[in-house]
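Sat 14:20. Reprocessing the chain from the morning session after the first attempt stalled halfway. Input below, unchanged.
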Amino acid sequence: MPAPTTPTRDFVTGLPKAELHLHLEGTLEPDLKLRLAQRNGIDIGQSTVEEVRATYAFDSLTKHVEMFFDPQAHTSRGVPFEAVVTGYHRAAAEASSKHGVDAHLILCFLRDLSAESAAETLEASVPFRDKILGVGLDSDERDNPPQKFADVFARARELGYRLTMHCDIDQVGSIDNIRTVLDEIGVDRVDHGTNVVEDPALVEVVRERGLGLTCCPISNSFVTDDMKATEIAGLLRSGVRVTLNSDDPAYFGGYVADNYVALAEAADLTTEEVVQLARNSFEASWLGDSQRAAYLAEIDRYVAAYDATAV
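Finished this time. Tokens:
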């Protein structure tokens, strides 16, 4: 029998997928945070997992993963840039053998800090260029439009980095920010980006360029009153390279498979559409052509094997 018409959690969980919108600092679960603090003798102001979990309350905003990290959040506390990037890179390199995850790093600038700070961080990254896949822009979008960092991103392009920027959902000027990152910055993909539906001409630009949108349904529901399921599914069905991701799963309570299941249920996705989302995730990734083809072939094998064993 073929794979189920309606995707099951079992099918979704096993489906090979890439995650392109994941903040490393947003994966630190409360119990691990407490254990690390106790191990290193650091007073974080909480002594139980429940107390740590209470600080995570948030009411606004086989796997290949391209993960964001925010060096300024650490260097501003006196942690050397080298310690941040080499520590993260070592863990990413170990992820394949220990967890079966092919992991890479994207350096993000905090947009509520100055462009000068971003430029300094970018230059600090140059000696570690081989450890960083690309650069992005995250944090508070209010009063921090993409134009603020145009020169920094132009320099990043000169250095050979791939480019992405957050254009979060339902922000003031969301559609203008999306237009800027497409027309002026020239990003290689857009993080979130769901508000592109407000301008059909921009939807066509995204579709024609084959740009990925790294949508995060579960985290969307913390920012607005729904997960934007209708908009995300509409973009998918119109041929836009929509991808699903978990954003800050320790805060939002859902990892990448949970986001697939949540959207499938909310938008009544078929199994074929869920498979297309997985294919989009690799097609929008910054993998080399041969690696991308290998992962896409894994999807085909997985679906074929599931077809053969489904009852």
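The chain has two domains: 9-65+142-309, 66-141.
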